[in-house]
Amino acid sequence: MSLIQAQALEKTYRAGDVDVHAVRGVDFTIEAASFAAFVGPSGSGKSTVLNMIGCLDHPTGGMLKVLDTDVSLLNRETGAAFRGNNIGFIFQDFNLVPVLTAYENVEYPLIMVQDWPAADRAKRVKELLEAVGMSDQADKRPDQLSGGQKQRVAVARALVARSKLVLADEPTANLDHDTAYRIIELLKGMRDEYGTTFIFSTHDPKIMGEAEVTFTLEDGRMQTLNGGSRPPDTRIGSEASHG
Questions:
Q1: In order of start, what are the domains of the chain with their CATH numbers?
Q2: C-alpha 2: how far from its chain's center?
Q3: Helix extents (H) in the chain
Q4: H or E segment at 212?
Q5: CA gap 158, 162 in Å, rounded
Q6: For residue 199, which of 152, 165, 151, 225 has the smallest C-alpha distance?
């Protein structure tokens, strides 16, 4: 069973009196433990697809199954619960809480989303900080960390609740060349160790080169596919301005 299945997936926004088709007729499947990327220029629809997979945005047409759940049928409350229990996120600007230490940032989902017991939280947070090489920086706040260190903390936070799926929106955009490659290698290592599926939205050639499955979008349409699979009878949509 595929981890993610999309058929005739659509997203239409209303902009004044105009319907804007951000994603239309996109079909794809992604297997468990994949290192996959949606790529394309700004406005191609790649971030919209990622947001729908992560239950941050709701499809307006088609079918989207994530972990065998049709997320197009979830409302805001059930979508938030599904997201909190199954999906981690990594952002290009890190999105760390500035007043919390690295340790507390990683711990945050276990308190606010899943309510883990204190002893279990401590064990899991220490395990993830060690895994990303940040144990010795646990007491530092984000403003005391480099960009690469912040992204390592963000990786640990995304994985701390044992998420089966991690979505990363331009995770290397604010990192220098060498640091970006180190983060990519770290993510691949975490995938190999934990079996986590990583899906990127990016136009960074470094990630494109390392992704094992690449879906190229342009104007909301699926243009090319490398290494993955599409369901039969793929429909190609048109006209988009969201990326």
A1: 4-226 (3.40.50.300)
A2: 17
A3: 46-53, 76-86, 102-112, 118-131, 147-159, 177-194, 205-210
A4: none
A5: 8
A6: 165
- Asked if 3 and 199 count as a contact pair (C-beta separation under 8 A), the reply is no
Per-residue pLDDT 10s for the chain (243 aa) are 689 999 999 999 988 889 999 998 999 999 999 999 999 988 899 999 999 999 999 999 999 999 999 999 999 999 999 999 999 999 989 999 999 999 999 999 999 888 899 999 999 999 999 999 999 999 999 999 999 999 999 999 999 999 999 999 999 999 999 999 999 999 999 999 999 999 999 989 999 999 999 999 999 999 866 765 444 443 333 333 345
Helices (H) and strands (E) counted in the chain, each on its own, are: 7, 10
| Ordered DSSP codes for 43-85 | TSSHHHHHHHHTTSS--SEEEEEETTEEGGG--HHHHHHHHHH
Measure the CA dihedral 59/93/239/34, to 10°.
-60
DSSP state of 124: H
Look-up: residue for tokens 């990192």?
A: 175
Residue 23: enclosing H or E segment and its boundaries? strand 18-30
Instruction: Give Dmax (Cα) for the chain.
Output: 55
Phi, psi of 61 (to 5 degrees): -170, 160
